[in-house]
Specification:
Layout: E1 2-7, H1 27-40, E2 44-49, E3 62-65, H2 72-82, E4 88-91, H3 97-107, E5 112-115, H4 123-127, H5 130-144, E6 149-152, H6 155-164, E7 169-172, H7 185-195, E8 200-205, H8 215-227, E9 234-239, H9 249-258, E10 266-269, H10 275-283, E11 286-289, H11 298-305, E12 310-312, H12 319-325, E13 328-330, H13 335-345, H14 350-367, H15 370-374
Parallel strand pairs: 1-2, 1-4, 2-3, 4-5, 5-6, 6-7, 8-9, 8-11, 9-10, 11-12, 12-13
Helix pairs in contact: 2-3, 7-10, 8-9, 8-13, 11-14
Length: 381
């Protein structure tokens, strides 16, 4: 099958996604990973980047860049010449006029169009820039009449899409992960070190979008836990980059840390990439993701792949995976429930965390490797 992906990919030097100085995230990680796995499964695959950043990919996969709307017709002709007419186009963003305009040429050739909203239809996402998005959705619903199918990341996102587009076909193609910690001895050492510690390390890794990621509730709950316990046995670690619209994350973290009874048990670290990122994940006893809105967080799948159990909110769309695999806990996105979880976590033996971590690794290996996901048939009824 000839598959052409269109996505706003940034910061990707090649399809080797775990090099030390190159660690793409989100769409910039999952789309190349999916394309690479589809290529390995015998498909002819191309990727069009709709961002303005330069992206160089493996010579085995066709690549080009859609730098602006006006270049669409020229790129369309170039794709037909160099790649050929695709059997289907998979678009990984809905708020891009460049992508939509470009795809119209292929619709005229009866090419099937598949669109992944990637969390854009959640209630929280739609509430941001509400007027603009309402106007855009009016236009998008007309465009959606001509597409073949929506592609959801999971059952949770499928329900979000169905609320807006009840008559459209919806298939599920999840995110995945292929990382094997056994290939790196330094990670094995990290596992041994953390199991010997008397306290529990609860970690968050990702961008510091305080509201969307629920970091306000997480840190306030942790503050309450510290204030209401005689012995502090939980260390909270945030690793990432300050990028927050509603709340100044630097000021918020600083003010909260100042008021903690034991501020040394809360750490904020700079973002890290490649193997350093994996080492940070491996140092956590538990990954915390109390987000208010997600598509399907890659970091949760990465944590599962190296045996780190997760505490997630229903809004991460990971609850079914976590509960079905018995690989963590589901906690509502509010301060009170997260504090309750902290108080119960210290009663759980570390052997139980290891057990849930092993469940996570096994579930991911059996269900969510990129190789398995790439075998999904877009056209299967």
């Amino acid at each position: 099958m000839k598959i052409l992906h269109i996505a706003p990919i940034k910061f990707v030097k090649k399809f080797n996604i775990d090099t030390e100085n190159n660690s793409p995230e989100g769409i910039s990680k999952s789309v190349p990973s999916l394309a690479n796995a589809q290529k390995q499964n015998g498909n002819y695959v191309g990727v069009i980047s709709s961002s303005k950043s330069e992206v160089a990919v493996s010579k085995d996969i066709y690549w080009n860049s859609l730098k602006n709307t006006y270049s669409s017709i020229f790129l369309f002709l170039r794709v037909l010449r160099d790649f050929g007419k695709p059997d289907l186009i998979h678009i990984h963003d809905i708020y891009s006029l460049r992508q939509i305009f470009f795809s119209l040429f292929f619709i005229l050739l009866n090419v099937k169009i598949f669109i992944s909203p990637r969390g854009c239809f959640s209630d929280i996402a739609l509430s941001r820039s509400k007027i603009k998005k309402k106007l855009f959705l009016v236009f998008f619903k007309i465009y959606a009449f001509f597409i073949h199918s929506f592609v959801a990341l999971n059952d949770g996102e499928k329900r979000q899409i169905f609320k807006l587009f009840k008559n459209k076909r919806i298939i599920i193609i999840s995110n995945g992960s292929d990382y094997d910690p056994k290939k790196n001895k330094s990670l094995e050492k990290k596992f041994q070190e953390k199991n010997n510690k008397a306290f529990y390390t609860v970690g968050y890794l990702g961008r510091f979008d305080v509201f969307i990621k629920g970091l306000d509730n997480l840190l306030k709950a942790y503050s309450n836990y510290q204030m209401n316990t005689d012995e502090i046995l939980i260390k909270l670690v945030f690793v990432g980059e300050h990028r927050s619209k509603e709340v100044d994350s630097v000021e918020f973290f600083s003010s909260m840390q100042t008021n903690l009874p034991n501020p040394e048990m809360f750490m904020v670290k700079e973002p890290c990439y490649g193997i350093e990122k994996w080492r940070e994940l491996a140092s956590f006893d538990l990954l915390a993701l109390p987000s208010r809105s997600e598509g399907m967080p890659n970091v949760a799948l990465e944590a599962m792949s190296i045996g780190v159990p997760c505490m997630v909110s229903p809004e991460t769309n990971m609850s079914e995976i976590i509960l079905n695999s018995d690989s963590g806990w589901l906690v509502e996105t509010n301060e009170k429930d997260i504090e309750f979880f902290f108080n119960n976590l210290i009663k759980i033996k570390k052997e139980e965390l290891v057990k849930k971590g092993n469940n996570a690794k096994n579930f991911l290996k059996d269900n969510l490797t990129w190789d398995r996901i790439a075998k999904m048939d877009y056209l299967e009824k």
